[in-house]
Amino acid sequence: MKHIPNILTFARILILPVLIVLILSDTASALWIAFGLYVFASLTDFFDGYLARKWNIQSAVGTFLDPISDKIFVACILLALVYTQTIY
């Protein structure tokens, strides 16, 4: 995991529990912080793919972890939003 795109993907996975806790706390300030973290995570998703293509860096870890982290991220966020009845 020495490549920046892989580090960005792993950072997105590490941000997820903090983001879920913030969403579940359901206070206005926590939700704004959660929104900021979500935007940051979205940017890391963009940049890990962009940098991997630009620098022509492909690794087995990145090829495996990036799509899985995207799916886990979206599923957990949706479950948290349904649990708090933000979406139905």
Describe the 3D structure.
This protein has 88 residues and is mainly α. Helix content is 83%, strand content 0%. It contains 3 helices and no strands. The chain has helices at residues 4-25, 28-54, 60-83.
Q: What is the element string, with H for helices and E for strands?
A: HHH
Contiguous runs where pLDDT drops below 50 for at least 5 residues: none
**Distance N terminus to C terminus?**
38 Å
Structural class: mainly alpha
Topology, number of strands: 0
Strand % is under 5%
- Characterize the overall form: elongated
Layout of helices and strands:
Elements: H1 4-25, H2 28-54, H3 60-83
Helix pairs in contact: 1-2, 1-3
Overview in brief:
With 88 residues, the protein is mostly helical. It contains 3 helices and no strands.
Key attributes of the depicted protein:
83% helix; 0% strand; mainly alpha; 88 residues
